[in-house]
């Protein structure tokens, strides 16, 4: 796989990514969502979108945070796995429908939203929407530029 574009070489992109990173940091620090959940949601969207770089990053961040390897490895098959809580399942389902908007005529189904709302308050739901939106944007950058997985170091962005 040949990288198409080094986004880090663009002054404009570097400036924009600082804001992107600040938005992610605000969610991580202020949302009340557990960091492993944020990383699981990010990992699942990255798997769906086929972003090698982001899949690599969020897998390593989960491991670095001490998440159990079985739980990390089974994120792609969360529906067929017994290692996730009902709240985590609700967040992963919201992630999938929020990521696959084009696959469903109505976007995120009411039943998916209502299930998530059973487990998360409005502030947390808003944060989940933001996390899902940000990771999908990051995935698109990675896929378009063909950023490969494998070189990410846990914590490299703070």
Explain what the structure shows:
One of its GO terms (molecular function) is peroxiredoxin activity. This is AhpD family alkylhydroperoxidase. Pfam families: CMD. Keywords: Oxidoreductase, Peroxidase. It comes from Phytomonospora endophytica. This protein is mainly α. It has one domain: AhpD-like (Up-down Bundle). The protein contains seven helices and no strands. The protein has helices spanning 11-30, 35-49, 52-64, 69-73, 86-99, 110-119, 122-145. Helix 1 (11-30) packs antiparallel against helix 7 (122-145). It is globular, with a radius of gyration of 15 Å. The protein starts with 10 loop residues before the first helix and ends in a 13-residue tail after the last helix. The relative contact order is 0.20. The model has no long low-confidence stretch (mean pLDDT 94).
Tags for this entry?
oxidoreductase, 7 helices, AhpD-like, mainly alpha, 158 residues, CMD-like, peroxidase, peroxiredoxin activity, AhpD family alkylhydroperoxidase
